[in-house]
Structure formats: structure tokens, C-alpha cells
Amino acid sequence: MGIQYPILEGGMTIAGNAELAAAVSEAGGLGMLGCNPGWSPPEQHVEHLRTHIRKLKGMVKKPFGVNFTLFAMQDKAEALIDMAIEEGVKIAVTSGGNPRLFTRHLKDADLTVIHVVGNVRQAKAAEESGVDIVVAEGYEAGGVNFPNELTTMVLVPYITSAVQVPVVAAGGIYDASSFVAAIALGADGVQMGSRFLTTKECHVHDNYKQAIVNAKDTDTAITRRKLRLRVRSLKNEYTQHLEEMERSSATAEDIQSYIGFGTAREGMMDGDTVKGDMLVGQMAGMITEVVTAADVVRQIIANATAIVERCNKLHQT
Hints:
Blueprint: E1 7-9, H1 18-26, E2 31-33, H2 45-59, E3 64-69, H3 70-73, H4 77-86, E4 91-95, H5 103-108, E5 112-117, H6 120-129, E6 133-137, E7 143-144, H7 152-160, E8 167-170, H8 176-184, E9 189-192, H9 194-197, H10 206-214, E10 220-223, E11 231-234, H11 237-247, H12 252-259, H13 263-268, H14 293-316
Parallel strand pairs: 1-9, 2-3, 3-4, 4-5, 5-6, 6-8, 8-9
Antiparallel strand pairs: 7-11, 10-11
Helix pairs in contact: 1-2, 2-4, 8-14
């Protein structure tokens, strides 16, 4: 893809802004613009994303991509993808939907296509549809997770043994150790979302960033199983009430009514750490400070060598 290091920024829908994507790309990774940066109503999605693509193109000359979270875009997916092609986007990541829907269209427009998967069946289907790369995302990841609940440690070897296209590991990756572990499992690179949330360039609310910095190892929760979803977020009053509803006789309709359609914006963009939804992965407890995106990339690459050398000593003995 023309990048220096095999480190991809996760799209993160509303959290993936132009400044963050530009910083990751400039540091040698692949910056990724979310499909609805900061949030906009459905009727404004296309022009809203167009504005952010143009902004990003004006900030960086290095490769970048756009993430299309298919389930979140609903009936706007095709229009958003067509607009991105018009704007000269060269790399697309699709997630949360069937890769057969848009892969051929994207490939015909000469884009590199990456698709996020959660099991072997999905990986094979993505490869058959013509994608160039698959992202194997484990259950440790923040946000919407795959129903099979396969962790990164077991998912990545499953996927690398099942497909011929390059595999990127995601879920629970945040530093040099997890980067090297992913490569050891057979991945060709990594994708990180949560670690880039707590960077200076990310436009999410400071309250949200500080909540991640303050998190401990057990401070994320999975909710919405009654909706046939699995969403990982930081624990707060909002997730506690959701868990109580799921243990009660509340119906799926009751739960959806409580969730509404703006809780992620309230938690992540407005900074409501009590009643808002704050999507983040299990590794939140390992993040102790807000740094620049370049610092994240540089520290991973700089420290990876020492970890590999330590592993080599095991072989020497």
C-alpha cells in the first residue's frame, strides 16, 4: 500500500477524523478516515464525508484510507462509496457487512480493498469476493464485535491458515509487545483503534480520553446480546443499566428504545461519561497517557526490535 510500517489505524466511524489519519500516515502507518467523522445526520452523510476527505487530502500526501462501516451507513453506503471514488480515495476498508456487496465495484475503480472479518468462513468469503487484505479482528476489540467471540490469539492463526491474501491482526493490540505477538501469530500487520483514541490528534472529547486513561483491566463490558449484537464499551451507568435490562424480562425493543441512536456521540464526542456510550477495547487499562499518534507508531517500531532480540535469546539457550 506504499506505507512504511504495517500499522493501520482503525476507522472508528465517528472517532476517525482527518487530523488523526494524517498524523498516522505521516508517521509511516496507514491513516484511516471514519465514515462519519464527528457525526452527522443521515441526510448529510455524503457531503459531510466528502468535506473530511478533501480536508485529509490537503493535509497529507502519503497513503490513507476510508473505512466504510456498512451497517452504520445503511442505505447511504453506495452513495458514500461512489463519492469516495469520485474524490480519488485509493484504499477502502469495509466492515460490518457482506464483502460481496461493494468489493467488485471498488476493485473496478482500482481501489485496494480491505475487509474486516471475525471467523474463517467470513475470511474465505472476503477472499473469494476479491478483497486484497483481510483484517482478523478478535473479541478484545472495542465497539461492535463478531458473534463467535473468537479472541485475537486464536483467530489470527485460523485466518492465516485459511486464506492466501495478507492478514492484518486487530483486537487488543496497543504496543510493541502485542505488535510482535501478532506477527508471531502469522499476521502481516496490525490494526489499532482504541490506542489511537487517546492521541492528541483524535477529536473525541477529553472526558472520554481521560476515562480510558483511568480505566483498569476489568473496566469494559459487552452489552446488547439481546439485540444479537456484542458491543464493547467502558463500564458506566449507561452500560450497567443495559446489563440490568438484558438480565431482566426487557424485550429487544425495550433495549433498543433505551439505547436510542445518539449514545455513542454523547459519550465519545460530547463527553458524557455517565450516560453516554464510550466504545473501547479491552486493552484500555494499559493506556496511561495521551500522546501523539506519531509517538504511538514510533514507540512500537523502536521497541519491537528489543522484543525480537529477547525472543532470539531463548533460541540461543
